[in-house]
Structure formats: C-alpha cells, structure tokens
Design goal:
With 169 residues, this protein is α/β, with parallel strands linked by helices. It has one domain: Rossmann fold. Helix content is 40%, strand content 20%. It has five helices and five strands. A five-stranded parallel beta sheet has the order 3-2-1-4-5, sandwiched between helices. Helix 2 links the parallel strand 2 and strand 3. The longest helix has 28 residues. It is globular and about 50 Å long. The two termini are 28 Å apart.
Length: 169
C-alpha cells in the first residue's frame, strides 16, 4: 500500500495538506480541530474527504442515482457544518479543500493520497465508546494496512476538547 509517488508537501509551489476523513461521528470534531490547528501553525491546509460507501443491494440504477444524490447532499451539509465549527473556534483562516468520493473507505483514501502529492499526514479521531476506536482507526491505523500506509497517521482521542487540542497541536 506504500505510495509510489513522492510526497511534495514541502517542495516549492506546494503546501502541506492534512487529510481528515469526515462523517457524522462525534470523534471527527477532535480530528478536525487538531488538523486545523496544526495546519495553521505549520502553514498548511486541510483536505476534508467524505466517502459515500456503496449500498449492498440495488436492483435499479435509478435507486442508486437517488441514493448517490442524497449522499452527496449530505456530504455538502457536513462540509458546511465543519466550516461553521472552524469559524466558531476562530479557525476560519485555515484553507479547506472538500472532496467527495464514492467507494470503499480504504481504497478511496489511498487513491486520494496517491493523486495528491501534497497530502502529508492523515488525522483520525478515535471513538470513545466501549466498542473500540472506531472503524477507520481499526482498519487503517491498527489493521494490516498500518505498516504500509502511504502517509503517517495521527490518532486524536475523540474526547479531547478544543482547548486540549490547541495546547497540543
């Protein structure tokens, strides 16, 4: 899974990007704020990625198209929500790129990293419930892909407050 393309985040004409996988889970806030604070401190930017996962059972293309349109609308609403959260915390000067992809989580994340040489690090929030750290952390950071992932992964505890994040990022 190691990328074949050289990371260029610090080369002339490039800017370091912090990749945050966004969804509607509570732990994303900690990852978002940590990434935004790090981006501000290091002169980087955010790449917010929303992945529409394919549904298991779809008989008709019309049903798939409606589902895709609904998920795209939801992704745009999630992006607006996160931009408001950044503004509310005084991080409105952090540049954010928003990307919507369709497919499997690991495959789409890897493709986005492969396509954008400026992605230098991925920030994930760990869930705080008793079921474990969450599917993204389990799959990407603790699973079989962890040792061969194309960029470093930072895991932020999902229960961190914005003030906690500011002091550490």
């Amino acid at each position: 899974m190691v990328t074949s393309r050289k990371r260029q985040a610090f080369d002339k004409g490039h800017q370091r990007k912090f990749l945050v996988i966004v969804d509607e889970t509570a732990e994303v806030d900690a990852a978002l704020f940590f990434a935004a604070c790090r981006a501000r401190r290091t002169g980087g930017s955010l790449l917010l990625l929303y992945i529409i996962q394919p549904q298991e059972f779809q008989h008709w293309m019309g049903v798939k198209q409606v589902q895709l349109e609904e998920e795209t609308s939801k992704a745009k609403a999630v992006f607006r929500l996160f931009r408001r959260k950044l503004v509310n915390e005084g991080l409105d000067d952090v540049v954010c790129e928003e990307v919507i992809r369709e497919g499997g989580l690991a495959e789409q994340i890897t493709e986005v990293i492969e396509e954008d040489e400026d992605v230098a690090i991925m920030i994930l929030g760990a869930a705080t419930d008793s079921k474990g750290p969450g599917p993204l952390v389990s799959t990407l950071a603790a699973g079989k892909a962890a040792g061969t992932f194309p960029v470093p992964i930072t895991i932020v505890p999902g229960n961190m407050t914005f003030d906690d994040v500011k002091t550490l990022a």
